[in-house]
Amino acid sequence: xxxxxxxxxxxxxxxxxxxxxxxxxxxxxxxxxxxxxxxxxxxxxxxxxxxxxxxxxxxxxxxxxxxxxxxxxxxxxxxxxxxxxxxxxxxxxxxxxxxxxxxxxxxxxxxxxxxxxxxxxxxxxxxxxxxxxxxxxxxxxxxxxxxxxxxxxxxxxxxxxxxxxxxxxxxxxxxxxxxxxxxxxxxxxxxxxxxxxxxxxxxxxxxxxxxxxxxxxxxxxxxxxxxxxxxxxxxxxxxxxxxxxxxxxxxxxxxxxxxxxxxxxxxxxxxxxxxxxxxxxxxxxxxxxxxxxxxxxxxxx
Length: 301
Fold this sequence. Notes:
Elements: E1 41-51, E2 54-64, E3 69-73, H1 80-87, E4 95-100, E5 103-104, H2 113-117, E6 120-124, H3 135-144, H4 150-163, H5 179-191, E7 197-201, H6 209-223, E8 228-232, H7 236-241, E9 245-250, E10 253-257, H8 261-266
Parallel strand pairs: 3-8, 3-9, 6-7, 7-8
Antiparallel strand pairs: 1-2, 1-4, 4-5, 9-10
């Protein structure tokens, strides 16, 4: 299983030619210096192509402020995972730029990318845990790679496991746990370093509805401590349950609803920063379908 790389020590080639590694921004702490008034994440005129002349993402512009909880949703294959992967540099932009705490991550050298990822917690649909390792080992690896002292690793892992509801299960073999518990192990690994930004790429996709709601609630509890959350999902039930900001991707374009689905029905499209999405007036009909019944796609007149 391939885990993302994290730098152990600074190298002279890191940080776009600077000798300094990428700065470390912890969750819940007030930023200092030049980053103090900057959003945590900004997409500026971002394009991503996998096929020539068919952009998966078209001129994407949006900003995530510190402490926000944002759903990223849309049809299967719309580009939700691509957007998440651009943030942690598994993919790179073809045009435009992405700023993390004011820093253009699209320009980072290969040596600097691990330092960027120190600031990110990443949770995947397929968990990406090592089944024959213990729960403790799966979570501790994120701290051991950073060469933290053993005593600190033990205390931080114990705290993370308690936060995700796995207190006392550190010595269990991860592969013997249920799917919901394995996803909690993945969440614990993602938050144990206290990242400033938590990225969730369809984290409930393999779970039943009740467990999916439990995992969403867990992310909300983490968010309440000051962590910014970007949560990609196609599960409309989760969107119905919570009034978080929604970023909707379809056919490469981005639309927003600032206050969840209730706001979507009143104001389904917000223009992006670089261009307005052409939208004709909707027919105001009391019998109109809800966004969920329409498959969450806005209907124009």
